[in-house]
Design brief:
- The protein is an alpha+beta fold.
- It is 32% helix and 24% strand.
- The chain has 8 helices and 8 strands, in the order ααββααββββααββαα.
- The chain has an 8-stranded mixed beta sheet with strand order 5-4-3-6-2-1-7-8.
- Helix 2 runs parallel beside helix 6.
- The longest helix has 16 residues, at 164-179.
- It starts with 8 loop residues before the first helix and ends in a 7-residue tail after the last helix.
């Protein structure tokens, strides 16, 4: 009898998710990167229970049509590359097409999205990697993703999560790292109804540095145009 077997898709997806999704901050990073790639000028991140209860990312980017809303949850489905040569010319954040299906496989996941030119949007619901429903929905242009009960079906992974303060710190640092190179995009982060920071869009980086690290820190920096 053969000792080697092909794993069922749901199990392989959960294993793959462990490689992509280490903690709630990993989810925030992947989703916000997608928002930036979609050309969003406004990104709002809402966290409950340090990400264990809810991670919500809402943007005003390009959005997706009904077909793409479903395709984005397929493994290795991506809009970032089309052929082998594109691998050497990547100018986006995510490109492998692993993040969305990985996140959906370890959470209660819902996606609402609408292109600016469309009259209605699309809503897709997935539970632990299993498709639940999809259909038209009224929503604002852009994309709204709700990730609830992360790791509810992978308790071993959930045990690796640290204290609430630690997980919130990781989330805030992840957002800092994405907000700093993009002063032209407004960012907002909320923890359990408490606003951690809000940083309006600006053509100059200095106001963002000031809001994140204080005026003394910003005043002691030298601008380099290279």
């Amino acid at each position: 009898m053969s000792l080697i077997r092909v794993l069922p898709e749901q199990i392989s997806n959960r294993i793959a998710a462990g490689e992509v999704i280490e903690r709630p901050a990993s989810v925030v990073k992947e989703l916000v990167e997608n928002s930036l790639d979609a050309g969003a000028s406004s990104i709002r991140v809402t966290i409950e229970g340090a990400g264990s209860k809810l991670i919500a990312v809402v943007d005003n980017g390009s959005g997706m049509d009904a077909d793409d809303a479903l395709l984005c949850l397929e493994a290795h489905a991506t809009s970032k590359i089309a052929g082998e040569k594109d691998i050497h010319e990547i100018i986006t954040y995510g490109f492998r097409g692993e993040a969305m299906p990985s996140i959906a496989s370890v959470s209660r996941f819902s996606l609402r999205t609408r292109r600016h030119e469309d009259a209605a949007g699309t809503e897709v619901t997935v539970r632990g990697g299993s498709f639940v429903s999809s259909g038209p929905v009224g929503c604002a242009p852009g994309t709204e993703i709700l990730v609830r009960d992360i790791f509810f079906n992978t308790p071993a992974r959930k045990k690796f999560m640290r204290t609430k303060a630690t997980e919130e710190k990781h989330i805030q640092e992840a957002l800092y790292l994405m907000a700093l190179p993009h002063p032209e995009v407004s960012f907002e982060l909320t923890f359990d109804g408490r606003q951690a920071f809000t940083s309006p869009a600006h053509k100059d980086l200095r106001p963002r540095i000031t809001s994140f690290f204080g005026s003394d820190y910003a005043d002691n920096m030298l601008e380099i145009d290279f």
